[in-house]
Specification:
The protein is mostly helical. It contains six helices and no strands. Helix 2 runs antiparallel to helix 4.
Length: about 130
């Protein structure tokens, strides 16, 4: 009977860790996408330095969490997001509005998909 309770406790701990990870990624991805959306609005108004500043802030936040992200997520997915940041920053520096908007939308989508991959849902369980 003791082994059963140890197994149940272990499963409960894994389940709790899964929920905590999902919540953390949702909060983090929401923060990043909010910054990138604000940067998009600034770029549309022609305020390129401010858009670059917000994008750099989002990139800095991403890099601060590198260890966690590379530990918990697939490396190819995190690499794509990092590459997306570099692409977006390059379009900002060149002040290429159309290309920037497309690259920024792609980056926001990639970040949102990171959370959706880890979200505790029936879709992900099956």
């Amino acid at each position: 009977m003791r082994r059963l309770w140890i197994a149940v406790a272990f499963l409960a701990a894994v389940f709790a860790a899964t929920l905590v990870n999902s919540h953390y990624l949702k909060t983090f991805s929401t923060e990043l996408t909010s910054l990138l959306t604000q940067a998009e609005s600034l770029a549309e108004r022609g305020e390129w330095p401010e858009a670059e500043s917000l994008t750099q802030q989002a990139l800095a936040s991403w890099e601060e969490h590198d260890l966690y992200l590379y530990t918990m997520l697939r490396h190819s997915d995190t690499d794509q997001v990092h590459t997306g940041f570099q692409e977006v920053l390059e379009f900002i520096r060149c002040e290429e509005g159309g290309e920037y908007s497309a690259a920024n939308a792609r980056l926001v989508s990639q970040i949102e998909l990171l959370y959706e991959m880890e979200e505790f849902s029936l879709k992900n369980l099956l």
